[in-house]
Amino acid sequence: MNEIQVLKDQRAQQILEKETLQCELAPYEEALENYDVMQSLEDKVRHELSRKKIDLRYVKFEIEALNRKIHRRETLANHQSLMSGYIEAITTWKGDEEELNQKRSSINTRLEQVRQQAHEDMAKARQAETEVATAYAQAVAWGDEEGEKKANDDAQKAAKHLTSAAEHHRRQQLIITALEQEIVTIDQHISEAKQTRADIENQASYLANTVLEEKWNEAAKALIEVGGKLWAARRLIDRDPIALTNLNIPEQGENHGRWSWSDLSDLSHQHSFEDVLAM
After folding, report:
1. Which has the closest alpha carbon to 217: 18, 30, 76?
2. Most buried residue, 2, 58, 104, 177, by most Cβ within 10 Å?
3. Backbone angles phi, psi at 260, to 5 degrees
4. How many of the other CB atoms lie within 10 Å of CB of 95?
C-alpha cells in the first residue's frame, strides 16, 4: 500500500471519529438547554461538553494536516503532467494576449486615422466657407457684381458642402465612439488574460517550489548518507571528523527539521568496514 493511500485511510478514520464526536456532543448540548437536568448535572455536562469539543477540534486539526500531506504527495506524484499543463496554459494565454494587443494596435491606428480625417474634413469645409465669405465681401467692396454673384453661388455650394461635411462628421464621431468602446473592451480582455496568466504562473511557481523542496531533501539525505560513511572512514583511520561537526542543513517542505553532525555520527555506526570500502 502506497503512502498516499495510507494517509487517505488515516483521514477516513479521523473523519469517522469527528462524526462520532459530533453525534456525542448533541445530547450534552441538549442537556444544557434543559433546566431540570442542568440543576443536577450542570458541572458534569459542562465538563464533558468541553472535553469533547477539545477532542473534536483536535480531530479536525488532524484531518486538515492529513489533507495537506495528501495534497502534497499527490502534487509530487503528478508534478510532471501538472507542470506541462501549466506551461501549455501560460503559452496559450501569452498568445491570446499578444493577439489582443495586435488587435488593439490595429484598431487604435484606425481610430487615429478616422479622428484625423474627421478633423481635416471639417476644417476644409469651414475654410472653404470662410474663403467664399471673404470673396463675397471683397466683391461687394469693389462693386464687382459678377464677382458678387459668383461668390454668392459659391457660398451656397460651400454651405451645402459644410452641411454635408457636418453630417459626415457626425457619422465619423459614431465610428470613433464605437472604436473607442472596442478598445475599452479589448483592454478588459487583455487585463483578464494577464491576470489569468499571472495566476497560472503563480500556481506553476508553487509547484516548482514544492518539487524543488523535495529534491533538496533528497539531495540532503544523499549527502547525509555519504557523510555517515565518511565519518565511519575517519573513525577507522583514527582521524577526528571535526570538519563535519559544523554541518547544519535545514529540511524543506512540510517538516521543519534539520540534519546535523549527530545524524552523521549515528549513521556512521550503522556502516560496517565492508560498507566503507564499498564507498
Report:
1. 76
2. 104
3. -135, -175
4. 11
63-102, pLDDT tens digit by residue? 888 888 889 999 999 999 999 999 999 999 999 999 999 9
CA gyration radius for the chain? 42
Tell me the CA distances in angstroms from 70 to 30, 60, 64, 205, 257, one per residue in order: 37, 15, 10, 19, 20
Is the separation of the CB atoms in 216 and 249 below 8 Å? no
- Own/partner contacts of 32-37, CB < 8 Å, gap of 24 or more, are none
Which residue in the block uniquely carries the three cell numbers 494536516?
A: 65
Where does the chain have alpha helices with state H?
Answer: 3-33, 35-77, 79-142, 145-236, 261-268, 273-278
Contacts of 136 (CB under 8 A, 6+ apart): 148, 151, 152, 154, 155
pLDDT in tens, 206-257: 999 999 999 999 999 999 999 999 999 998 998 988 888 999 999 998 888 9
Q: Name 120's Cβ contacts closer than 8 Å, sequence gap at least 6.
A: none
Phi, psi for 224 (deg, rounded to 5): -65, -40
H or E stretch covering 241:
none
The x, y and z cell numbers of residue 111, run together, are 481610430
Residue type, 159: A
Sign of the four-CA dihedral 95, 96, 99, 104: negative
For 157, the grid coordinates are 455650394
- Entry pTM: 0.70
**What is the amino acid identity at position 178?**
A
Ramachandran assignment for 233, one of left (phi > 0), alpha (psi -120 to 50 degrees), beta (any other) = alpha
Identify the residue with better confidence: 132 or 114. 114
Q: For residue 33, what pLDDT band results from cuts at 50, 70 and 90?
A: low
- Which of 234, 235, 225, 216 lies closest to 264, judged by CA? 225
